[in-house]
UniProtKB/TrEMBL annotation:
Transmembrane segments: none
EC main group: oxidoreductase
SUPFAM superfamilies linked to this entry: Dihydrofolate reductase-like
Protein name, as recorded: 2,5-diamino-6-ribosylamino-4(3H)-pyrimidinone 5'-phosphate reductase
Length: 285
C-alpha cells in the first residue's frame, strides 16, 4: 500500500514511479456505472492560459516551459502527463489537438518505466485507445496518429461531422453520438459499454474539458500551475486559449440537480521554483 501525503516535494524533477503512484493512486476510485472514471490533465499559466497561440507555436509546450532547459519542472509535468496516459484505457483529444500539433504521433507514454508499469502492473494493452472528438469532422486525416499501426484510433462525432468525414472517404472507426454536436453523455456511455473504457484521460484544451465539467462528467483534475502570467491575447491581438473558457454553470441546459464543480484537493506537489502540481477530486455541490 503506497502512502499518499497531501503535501510533499518530489525528490527529483524526473519523478520516479513510487512518487507518481503515490500522488496519482487510483486505489479506491469509484468507476460510475454509466461512464468511465474520468480525469483531466492540463498545464496552465497563473492567469489560466493553456497555449500562447502564436504563429508557429500552438502547443502547450511554452506554458510548461519546455523550451527553457534550466526549468527542470517541465520534465515533471511531462512525466505526470505520461503517467496518466500509461494508466488510462483511453485518452481523449479533440480535432484542435490534431490541428495544433501536426507532428505529434499519439497520446501514449514515451517513458519505458511507465510503459513497463502499464504492461506489467496494470496488465493493460500496449497503448490506450486514442479517442478523437470532433463536431465539424474537419480533421487532418494525414495526421501521424492515423499512420501508426500500433495505435487504435476512434473518431467520435455527430451526424454533421460524420457526413463531412464520409465525403473525405473516412467512415471506418467513426462513431456517431448526436447530430449537430457530439452528445457528451452518450459519448461517455458508448466508451464504457462498447469499448470497455473504465479509465479515461482527457488531454484536450479548455473548451472540451469545460463542457464535460459543466455536465458533471469529470471525476478528477490534475493541473500543473506554471508560474507564468501570459496575458489574454497573442501578438496578433487574438484571444489565447484558456483553461475554463465556457463553463456555463448557471445555464438552463445543465442536468437538473447538478451543482457547481468544487475541487477537493487530494494532493499538492512541488519540485522546483516554477511549478505547483495539484490533483483534486471534483465534487458537484
Ligand atoms: N495546456 C494544456 O494542458 C493543453 C493545451 N492545449 C492547447 O489548447 C489550445 C486549444 O484550446 P481549446 O480551443 O480550448 O481546445 P479544445 O481541445 O477544447 O478544442 C476545441 C475543439 O474541440 C471540439 N469541441 C469542443 N467542445 C466540444 C464538444 N462539447 N463536443 C465536441 N467537440 C468539441 C471542437 O472541434 C473545438 O474546435 C491549443 O493551443 C492546444 O495546443 C491542448 C491540450 C492541453
Ligand atoms: N499537462 C500538459 N503538459 C504538457 O507539457 C503538455 N504538452 C500538455 N498537453 C498535452 O500533451 C500533448 C502533447 O503536447 P506537446 O506537443 O508535447 O506540447 C498535447 O496534445 C496535449 O494533449 N499537457
Amino acid at each position: 500500500m503506497t502512502s499518499t501525503p497531501f503535501l510533499a516535494v518530489f525528490t527529483s524533477p524526473e519523478v520516479q514511479l513510487p512518487e507518481l503512484t503515490s500522488y496519482l493512486s487510483l486505489d479506491g476510485i469509484h468507476v460510475p456505472n454509466d461512464r468511465p472514471y474520468v480525469w483531466q490533465n492540463a498545464v496552465t499559466s497563473l492567469d489560466g492560459v493553456i497555449g500562447l497561440a502564436e504563429i508557429g507555436c500552438t502547443d502547450a509546450g511554452p506554458i510548461a516551459m519546455k523550451h527553457m532547459e534550466q526549468v527542470k519542472g517541465s520534465l515533471t509535468d511531462w512525466r505526470i502527463l505520461n503517467f496518466g496516459w500509461a494508466c488510462a484505457d483511453g485518452v481523449l483529444v479533440t480535432g484542435a489537438n490534431l490541428r495544433n500539433e501536426p507532428e505529434f504521433d499519439g497520446w501514449f507514454t514515451r517513458f519505458q518505466d511507465l510503459q513497463n508499469y502499464r504492461q506489467t502492473n496494470l496488465k493493460s494493452p500496449d497503448h490506450p485507445l486514442q479517442i478523437i472528438v470532433t463536431n465539424s469532422g474537419e480533421l487532418p486525416l494525414d495526421h501521424p496518429v492515423f499512420q501508426r499501426v500500433d495505435l487504435k484510433v476512434l473518431i467520435v462525432t455527430g451526424g454533421r461531422g460524420s457526413r463531412c468525414l464520409a465525403e473525405r472517404g473516412k467512415s471506418e472507426n467513426v462513431v456517431v453520438c448526436g447530430e449537430d454536436v457530439v452528445d457528451l453523455r452518450q459519448l461517455m456511455k458508448v466508451l464504457k459499454e462498447s469499448y470497455q473504457i473504465q479509465t479515461l484521460d482527457i488531454s484536450t484544451g479548455g473548451a472540451f474539458a469545460s463542457d464535460c465539467l459543466n455536465l458533471g462528467l469529470i471525476d478528477e483534475v490534475r493541473y500543473t500551475l506554471s508560474g507564468q502570467i501570459c496575458g489574454r491575447v497573442n501578438s496578433q491581438n487574438q484571444q489565447r486559449p484558456v483553461l475554463f473558457p465556457n463553463v456555463r454553470f448557471n445555464w438552463v441546459d445543465r442536468p437538473a440537480g447538478l451543482g457547481n464543480p468544487l475541487i477537493h484537493y487530494l494532493g499538492i506537489r512541488a519540485v522546483d521554483e516554477h511549478f505547483v502540481f495539484v490533483r483534486g477530486r471534483v465534487e458537484y455541490r
